[in-house]
Write a structure and sequence with these properties.
The chain is an alpha/beta fold. It has a single domain, classed as Rossmann fold. It has 6 helices and 7 strands; from the N terminus they run E-H-E-E-H-E-H-E-H-E-H-H-E. It has a 7-stranded parallel sheet, sandwiched between helices. Helix 1 crosses helix 6 and helix 3 packs parallel to helix 4. The two termini are about 25 Å apart.
Length: about 230
């Protein structure tokens, strides 16, 4: 399968900018939809990236964006969401925002791939994602992961990274800013360990598996906490 056009959902974020750059280096044209084009202005400098201001939740938009592509990446994810009313919470007890982004969007992407004739879907989930996980984030991620893996007509690879951070992230940089003003920072899980991800721990295996494996229709990869330096 020759890759010429790739659609990247959630491509304006931290991982997305590194993925887009890696795809451009391979001579691939990349489409990145975003609700606000100014959030993806850093991507407009890349020669084969097309930033499209649109709402991927609107009817028919995903199908139109996927048409002519050979692969679709789903990087979309949120860390926080509204709890919602009792009737808004998902069957595994997560709020409406988690349901929309982590469950309904992957389902819609799979349908769009099918409608547009795209066979290759690469989906970023999370380590520990499971319908019975302890957090709303992981439960909703687990349901979304199951949805894409349940497709019987797509070549799907699911990546399960842990905490991803680097020079442009909003995670450790926020802690760094707080440390300038606070003498002590509370750590909710003092046993946790972290390693530096300059985007490449996810991007390198993702780009290397753009072509579907010949003998495996569905594949899940957990990405370990090992530092990876830029080439």
């Amino acid at each position: 399968m020759r890759l010429e056009n790739v659609l990247v959902i959630g491509g304006s974020g931290f991982i997305g900018r590194h993925l887009a750059a890696a795809l451009v280096r391979r001579g691939i044209r990349v489409t990145v939809p975003t609700r606000r084009s100014e959030r993806a202005k850093h991507l407009t400098l890349l020669p084969t990236v097309n930033v499209v201001q649109t709402d991927v939740f609107a009817p028919g938009i995903l199908e139109r964006l996927a048409t002519g592509c050979q692969a679709v990446f789903n990087l979309a994810g949120i860390l926080h969401g509204r709890r919602g009313r009792r009737d808004e919470r998902g069957p595994n007890d997560y709020g409406p925002d988690f349901a929309r982004v982590h469950v309904e969007l992957p389902q819609a992407i799979a349908r769009a791939c099918r409608a547009a004739g795209v066979r290759r879907l690469l989906h970023v989930s999370a380590v520990g994602a499971s319908p019975d996980a302890p957090s709303e984030y992981l439960r909703s991620k687990g349901i979304g992961e199951q949805a894409v893996l349940a497709t019987d007509d797509l070549e799907v690879t699911v990546f399960r990274p842990s905490v991803v951070f680097g020079p442009e992230d909003r995670f450790l940089n926020q802690f760094a800013q707080l440390s300038r003003f606070l003498p002590v920072l509370a750590v909710p899980c003092p046993q946790a360990t972290f390693a530096h991800y300059p985007g490449l721990t996810v991007i390198m295996p993702a780009t290397s598996q753009l072509a579907p494996p010949s003998d495996v229709r569905k594949r899940t990869r957990e990405l370990s906490l090992l530092p990876v330096e830029p080439p």
